[in-house]
Specification:
two-stranded antiparallel ribbon; 404 residues; 31% helix
């Protein structure tokens, strides 16, 4: 009886300890999610402006809409070199219904509250003097353009007009006419994962969707280029060449968009398994493949599989210079803003975030993308790309620079 009572006391103490510990952690997470957080500062010389537009492609019926027949409409976030007025304040990170990007649409429970996230872009600021090449930024499947604000601000600060596309019905959330719009079954099929092996239905879904997102990217590029003709961007857009950049499935879309756009000067795939015709034909324009530590997208990875075969097929068919890099310690989501936001431990454990410092990973990614865009869009020499070894110990250069 004495041992039973002792065991019961121990059990009760453990239960109370767990309850107290859980309560303490919930309180800690609530405090952390309510603390101000500033995104990494852009590394380029230009201040950055931002505006949010909605563009409708009247020539294309939306193939992903749950109700057929409507033209395809996209939310496009523009980041650009700016000349903000003295005293101007930064734009909100996720205004209005975009705040529902939080897990479950509930702010401040397991992630930094978006009201506390501070970027560096000025809302609607005048465009800086000069003409700036267009770069289309495609997010990963399920993701939205604002979740790449750190990279977008950084690239815009280097003198590029960044058109961040949120693909309607593939993103978990977009906002059109002020209202949230969620993914559809055709836009984000149950069970489809761009990291899956290229077999069966996953391959078919991937090839189908990459064509839709590539068309989105080309449409956004054309509309961004047309901004040069009038309005606040008149005379500030260099519409002669376009570049495409994407993360994850958006990286595959960037390659396919470049393949089918005569104005494309180059494309960068950031940790995205490749899909579509570009895998078979290669790319005749310069290409950068930037991967996480365990990724196969650069043609090298620790666990060979179908994704590795796909990347090598793309590289074997490629007829233009290509650069391939991997970042040690980075995982798939380290290329988005999730790498720098506070995430409660249970949520962080569910996400593909590696041990690399989140700010360092984004700084490295921005540096290599800016160098690639500077070379391909402005023909500027880029020692970062031509050196056999670079300044970042986290970066692994795969094969000969320019010939990966």
């Amino acid at each position: 009886m004495r041992d039973m009572r002792r065991s019961l006391r121990i059990f009760v103490a453990l239960v109370l300890g767990v309850v107290a510990g859980t309560g303490a952690y919930v309180g800690y997470a609530a405090i952390r999610s309510g603390q101000d957080l500033t995104l990494p500062a852009p590394a380029g010389p230009h201040p950055v402006g931002r505006t949010i537009l909605e563009w409708t492609d009247q020539d294309r019926t939306d193939p992903l809409a749950p109700t057929p027949g409507a033209p395809r409409t996209l939310s496009v976030w523009l980041w650009y070199p700016a000349a903000p007025a003295p005293g101007a304040g930064p734009a909100p990170y996720a205004p209005g219904a975009w705040s529902q990007l939080h897990p479950g649409g509930l702010p401040g429970l397991a992630e930094t509250g978006f009201d506390h996230v501070h970027g560096h872009a000025f809302d609607g600021a005048p465009v800086a003097a000069g003409r700036f090449p267009v770069v289309v930024l495609e997010p990963g499947l399920g993701f939205s353009a604002p979740q790449y604000s750190t990279l977008a601000e950084d690239l815009a600060s280097h003198g590029f007009l960044i058109a961040g596309v949120t693909p309607t019905y593939t993103a978990n959330l977009t906002v059109l006419h002020g209202q949230p719009v969620h993914a559809s079954e055709r836009g984000n099929p149950a069970g489809f994962d761009a990291a899956d092996l290229h077999t069966g239905q996953a391959q078919a879904d991937g090839d189908r969707l990459v064509g839709v997102l590539a068309a989105d990217a080309r449409f956004a590029a054309a509309r961004a280029a047309a901004l040069d003709a009038g309005g606040p961007f008149a005379g500030h857009v260099d519409a002669t060449t376009i570049a495409y950049v994407g993360h994850s499935f958006g990286g595959a879309a960037a390659l396919e968009a470049c393949r089918t756009d005569d104005r494309c000067a180059g494309a960068a795939d950031v940790d995205g398994t490749q899909y579509g015709e570009v895998v078979r034909t290669g790319l005749s324009k310069p290409m950068m493949l930037l991967g996480s530590e365990d990724s196969c997208v650069t043609g090298t990875c620790p666990t060979p599989g179908t994704d590795l075969d796909t990347a090598r097929a793309l590289l074997d068919a490629d007829t233009a210079p290509a650069w391939c890099y991997q970042i040690r310690g980075a995982r798939h989501f380290n290329f988005s803003d999730l790498g720098v936001l506070y995430l409660a431990a249970p949520l962080r454990a569910l996400l593909a975030l590696g041990p690399v410092d989140g700010r360092s990973a984004l700084a490295i990614t921005g540096a290599y993308l800016a160098a690639f865009l500077g070379l391909t869009l402005r023909a500027e020499p880029q020692p970062l790309l031509t050196a056999a070894t670079g300044p970042y110990p986290e970066v692994v250069t795969n094969r000969t620079p320019g010939r990966c």
